[in-house]
Design a protein that fits this description.
Length: 431
């Protein structure tokens, strides 16, 4: 066992050296009977309209907050210890999963064995919406969805910004989360976020042995710790009397005690900064995720208004409120802003509001010692989505990217993060 640990540690060190020196690979490890080989992440730079030379994460002069984050990455890579939590929040590009599922795969492949908990999941299918392929759900009972981006919807949302409610006297939920390679995540602890009438009782999976049950009605969750580990969340509820009842499911956190990196994706179709500020339990439930890095990709829906109608000051103020929620949960959290991809307004003309979003995010990054990934500039700037569409990298609505486009974005962002991490190692090891 000791020899195997030393071999793994030496290979992690070798992999980190390659991160800094090779420049073209995300992570390379030699083939070994005990260590899985991870293919290098590269992009071919085949599209002349993409500004590959701008593919970087711009961090301001104050790097102490980022140095703490990169130090945690270093600890995980060198010693295989520690936990890192990333929360990526946005609209439909996050809910759809093409971007964030690939980001999760890339980040957990940074070093062998870096995959941590699956983290937060929501079964969008139960709310009659589209779901990432990495989340599968089955259920009994009738459920009605409610999301923060729909003005007529008025619910007590949590961190997910979406919920689903049943008025049946009993119902059940079964949920599985998969890796990018379609391997189910295992877990031995689950925190179920919910609201319900007083006469509801949650029933845990009968196929496990419960070790601990904790309930927090104020923050809206029930937590079960059990053995053995499972790959499917199964729970149900029933009423304890003959009175009318209701149960609202707001999502679940799938966890364990292992070290590693957890990539939480929070997205709602049509969501804007205003949408997440409608979530009354957002901050309290965010504590369960305890983000070390917040990736903010909210802006396309805020900017989807006629030219001249976008209020940049109000947009910035709403972001201030969201960022304060994250920093209240973890004062050391880093914030990374992803500018809007280029879009067209109503398919008619390039949306110049993306430039105002871009400018606002740079101001916010300076204010909070954050960083910017300037997707708008990297894409090619105003009007570039037509070229992405011609290359089958964007959808016909000239707002969303295609699966291929989102996965390209994920690869480029991952490589940019790798370079920022490499710069930290260079600074730290400089004579």
């Amino acid at each position: 066992m000791h020899m195997r640990f030393n071999m793994k540690k030496s290979l992690l060190l070798y992999g980190l050296m390659l991160i800094v020196l090779a420049g073209s690979a995300w992570m390379i490890t030699p083939k070994s009977d005990s260590i899985k080989s991870i293919d290098p992440l590269r992009i071919s730079e085949e599209f002349d309209f993409i500004k590959y030379d701008q593919n970087k994460i711009t961090i301001g002069k104050k790097t102490s907050r980022w140095d703490k984050l990169f130090s945690k990455f270093e600890e995980l890579a060198f010693n295989g210890t520690g936990k890192i939590s990333i929360v990526h929040i946005g609209g439909s590009h996050v809910q759809g999963g093409f971007l964030t599922d690939k980001m999760r795969e890339n980040f957990t492949s940074l070093v062998y064995g870096a995959e941590g908990e699956r983290g937060f999941v929501f079964p969008y299918e139960m709310a009659k919406s589209n779901s990432p392929k990495s989340i599968k759900a089955k259920w009994t009972g009738n459920w009605t969805g409610c999301r923060n981006s729909v003005s007529k919807d008025d619910c007590l949302w949590g961190v997910s910004g979406i919920s689903t409610t049943s008025y049946d006297r009993q119902a059940s939920v079964s949920l599985t989360a998969f890796s990018y390679d379609s391997i189910p995540y295992s877990f031995n602890k689950v925190r179920i976020f919910h609201q319900n009438s007083p006469n509801i009782q949650i029933d845990a999976d009968t196929n496990v042995t419960l070790l601990k049950v904790m309930s927090d009605p104020v923050n809206g969750f029930t937590e079960f710790t059990f053995t053995p580990e499972v790959t499917k969340l199964n729970f149900s509820y029933h009423t304890t009397d003959s009175l009318s009842s209701w149960f609202t499911f707001q999502g679940a956190y799938l966890g364990d005690a292992s070290s590693g990196l957890t990539y939480n994706a929070i997205g709602v179709n049509g969501a804007s900064t205003k949408s997440y500020l409608r979530c009354g339990l957002f901050e309290s439930q965010l504590q369960s995720l305890h983000p070390d890095l917040a990736i903010f990709g909210i802006g396309v829906n805020d900017a989807n208004v006629p030219d001249g109608d976008f209020d940049a000051a109000l947009y910035e103020a709403r972001y201030d409120s969201l960022i304060h929620a994250f920093l209240k949960v973890n004062p050391d959290a880093c914030v990374l802003f992803v500018t809007n991809n280029d879009t067209y307004y109503q398919k008619k003309q390039p949306n110049r509001n993306a430039i105002k979003v871009q400018e606002t995010m740079y101001r916010l990054a300076e204010k909070y010692d954050g960083a910017v990934y300037d997707l708008f500039e990297i894409m090619g700037g105003l009007g570039s989505i037509k070229k992405w569409q011609s290359a089958q990298l964007a959808a016909s609505d000239k707002i969303h990217l295609s699966k291929k486009g989102y996965e390209l974005q994920a690869d480029m962002m991952s490589i940019a993060f790798r370079e920022a991490f490499g710069n930290y190692l260079d600074r730290k090891n400089a004579p």
